Amino acid sequence: MKKILMIENDQSFERLIKYKLIQAGYYVINITDGQEGLKAINEEKPALVLLNILLPSMSGWEILEKMKANPKTNTIPVLILTNLESKEDLERGLKMGADDYIVKAHFTPAEVLKKVEKYLNHHFGSNTNALQDSNSD
């Protein structure tokens, strides 16, 4: 069972995504604070990180920067999940090493699951814990 770390402080959004990921067979840990999230990345060594940008105590930008500078965590795929929609933010996230940039308002939980599976497949090969029908919400 692949472990996904979600660093997200929007509880309603977190519940929707977490439910979808658990349905698909993933083990999901949610952290709502930036510093605690960075600590969890280092301790848990997740298969993938879903990272919000606007977090208490440490921004997602800082987490991403520290993660990518650490040889023990720099290969973990990171999908930014945010409400920041500017082209500059998107470019910044990708330039800093995020694998994808997802604007929350533009994606359903099923679409987020597809992106998670895409990056896990790319990182680990095709042996993921995906449901055959990930389109149902």
Average pLDDT score? 90
What is the chain-wise order of helices and strands? Answer: EHEHEHEHEH
CATH architecture: 3-Layer(aba) Sandwich
- Number of self-contained structural domains: 1
State the helix count.
Answer: 5
Provide the CATH top-level class. Alpha Beta
Structural class: alpha/beta
CATH superfamily: Response regulator
Main sheet makeup = 5 strands, parallel
Cα end-to-end separation? 21 Å
- How many β-strand stretches? 5
Strand content: 15-25%
The rounded Rg comes to 14 Å
Summarize, please.
Helix content is 43%, strand content 17%. The chain has helices at 11-23, 34-44, 60-69, 87-95, 109-124, and strands spanning 3-7, 27-31, 48-51, 78-82, 100-103.
Describe the overall structure:
This protein is of the alpha/beta class. It has one domain (3-124): 3-Layer(aba) Sandwich (Rossmann fold), CATH 3.40.50. Helix content is 43%, strand content 17%. It contains 5 helices and 5 strands. The longest helix is centred in the C-terminal third of the chain and has 16 residues, at 109-124. The protein is globular. The model is unreliable at 127-137 (pLDDT under 50).
